[in-house]
Write a structure and sequence with these properties.
Length: 191
């Protein structure tokens, strides 16, 4: 039974990473940036929320199955308190930090109407730390962290997030031009 739990834990972690990558990309693209071609912003926000929810479900499945796996040697404290695990404590601890950040984002999302948008946005910024921490956890603690097929998945994830960040930053560099009226025939602006 432990091999089944290990396989489910492994695959659910990979699926979770892919879904969190997609969620991160959608979040980057919709946050005060220009709209995506052919998609209304509200549609992208809805997809972002649903993908985030699905990623969280796979993350919980990842953690729950590894709690029951004798190879992973996880206990409830390891899931919440980073760097205490008996198996690769640093890499496992990174996973715990990422998990804790996801929990914080989920809790504030559920309480958004009570805590306000400012507090929600502040905590939501932790996603920008969570995603690379989760990537490092998957490389260092994952049994497939250096296998060829996983490196391809990881490269695709890195390219997707990197491209979204570049696209997003390119929208900031394009500020609208302020047109200064010019007097006809003078070549000078009117002030």
């Amino acid at each position: 039974m432990s091999e089944v739990l290990w396989a489910i834990g492994r695959m659910s972690g990979i699926v979770s990473l892919i879904l969190f990558t997609l969620s991160t990309v959608l979040g980057i693209l919709t946050h005060r940036g220009r709209p995506l071609p052919g998609l209304p912003r509200f549609g992208v926000v809805i997809v972002h929320r649903n993908v985030s929810l699905l990623a969280s479900v796979f993350l919980v499945l990842h953690v729950a199955t590894l709690l029951g796996d004798s190879y992973a040697k996880l206990n409830l404290v390891d899931v919440v308190v980073p760097f205490l695990g008996s198996f690769q404590p640093f890499w496992q601890g990174l996973g715990t930090v990422a998990f804790d950040l996801v929990l914080a984002v989920i809790i504030t999302s559920l309480l958004r109407h009570r805590i306000g948008d400012r507090a929600f946005r502040f905590v939501h910024w932790f996603v920008y730390a969570m995603w690379p921490i989760a990537v490092l956890h998957s490389i260092g603690n994952g049994t497939d962290g250096t296998s060829g097929w996983f490196v391809l998945i990881l490269a695709a994830c890195l390219i997707a997030v990197g491209s979204a960040v570049i696209w997003r930053l390119s929208t900031r560099s394009r500020s609208p031009r302020v047109m200064t009226p010019v007097a006809p025939g003078s070549g000078r602006s009117i002030r």
